[in-house]
Amino acid sequence: MNKLFFIKNFFLPTAIFSLxxxxxxxxxxxxxxxxxGRVISTKSFEAFWLLSLLLLxxxxxxxxxxxxxxxILVSANNAIDAMISPDLLRKMIEGASSAEQNPYHHAxxxxxxxxxxxxxxxxxxxxxxxxxxxxxxxxxxxHPYMLYALIFxxxxxxxxxxATGYLTSASLAEANSASRDTARFVDSAILNSEAVNAMGMxxxxxxxxxxxxxxxxxxxxxxxxxxxxxxxxxxxLQSLVGALSMGVFAYISLQEKTMMNxxxxxxxxxxxSKATAPIMYITSSWQSIVDTRTSYIRLDKFFKEVSxxxxxxxxxxxxTGQIALEHVTFGIRASNKVxxxxxxxxxxxxxxxxxxxxxxxxxxxLARLLVGVWxxxxxxxxxxxxxxxxxxxxxxxxxxxxxxxNIELFAGTIAENIARLDEPDSELVINAANMAGLHELILQxxxxxxxxxxxxxxxxxxxxxxxxxxxxxxxxxxxxxxxxEPNASLDTAGxxxxxxxxxxxxxxxxxxxxxxxxxxxxxxxEKLLILQNGSVAAFGPKEWVLAQAxxxxxxxxxxxx
Length: 561
Ligand SMILES: Nc1ncnc2c1ncn2[C@@H]1O[C@H](COP(=O)(O)OP(=O)(O)OP(=O)(O)O)[C@@H](O)[C@H]1O
Ligand SMILES: [Mg+2]
Fold this sequence. Notes:
The chain has 561 residues and is of the alpha/beta class. It is built from 20 helices and ten strands. A hairpin with a 2-residue loop joins strand 9 and strand 10.
């Protein structure tokens, strides 16, 4: 966050306006002071009208300044949003594909909290609070007792709020967390509704939900009861403190044995209420001020981390697609698990590699490392000699085609999805669709390339989704194509289309990595890598690797026999 920019352009002017507005707000006080103190005793109509006119002007100016101040804050709000939101979203999405917990998950929420505070009621009240010493001085000059009353009242209110927070926050937090768990459970039930309905899971699901919900209710009742009791006490204190100032005026009058000057008394009321407003605000919003501060600290940390990232590098020439992995080791810190161990291999530009291996051997993880969505802890992955982690992801992305094992499409048209959410370039889109053998199929759809595919591609069949995912991977001219089980939901026609696509990319000299269990596709690859438990069990020309595997197997069989 460029603090200086905001301070100079928004908060300094607002502070200055606040200052003037606050000075003008003293006008009614001076007016009443003059009116009751002098005008009435001198019985001068002229002075009365003149003073009233001056008051009117002062209040008009104050109103005008107040609206300008508000509009400055609105602009600040928009400026903060425009400057920061895209960066945050970017970082959040980058973080979301990381294998580790995403620390920026709440960044947009934090931003909203800080922004609302900075540009809303909160900031204005805090700015008013800076005036407190001035008000206190004036009050003191009127009568020291009044200041004591103010301080005493404030301490009582402050204590009541802090005590409320202290007594309720734990039970409230527990209730909220239980309620979030329940909501998450319902979300996943809706996501899995097909399985739930098909297999009669509904009664057990409702039972589990009821148990969770009962707990939420118990916790919430506890928290509300507590809060209710405390709120009675605070209401009592609030009214008591409110009445206190009256009492103090009366007491002063009694003590000094003369009625206090009514002008002074009015002025005293006005200024007391001005002084108590920010105090009341700060005490009653204490929790939200603390939360906003926490959000701010998180955001600040986030921005420091963002700015620590390496600067955008010089644009490298388009790669040819040569790939090299050097001693790549990858693990997930949260689960303390090593998923890939010391993986090394290399591919010349245009070579095709098949990766096979049992489930959970790390094939998909290797694919994610190859396309740069995950980062290895040790070792280097190079494309044309340059470490891919040094490539800005937009640049690398242009040369990479990736079909993940679980394809996710976006709500939008087929063309937009194939064009990777870019403004679709018809020629490139049709080209990619042709490569994936999809063109005719798309033309048969109700709106052709402009057919909406629904949230996540809901309106498509599994096979259609997979083939559109393939076309998206082929869009543009990728130099590296990574396909993770691309045949999982394909029919025979789809499989033929896939094999044809593999032949075409081979002719175009695209380096291709194909993860598959199906020997059919292995006919298309030149090299083969067998992964076992995260390590390379064999790598080399396909025939050689297969022969080795055959030999190992027959040796094992002999030992077994
Ligand atoms: N996001 C993740 N968090 C924690 N562990 C993960 C994550 N993704 C994968 N793993 C673990 O990494 C290991 C390798 O998973 P991976 O998906 O790479 O296997 P795979 O070889 O692709 O299996 P399959 O053939 O079933 O697709 C598994 O043990 C899995 O539990
Ligand atoms: Mg996999």
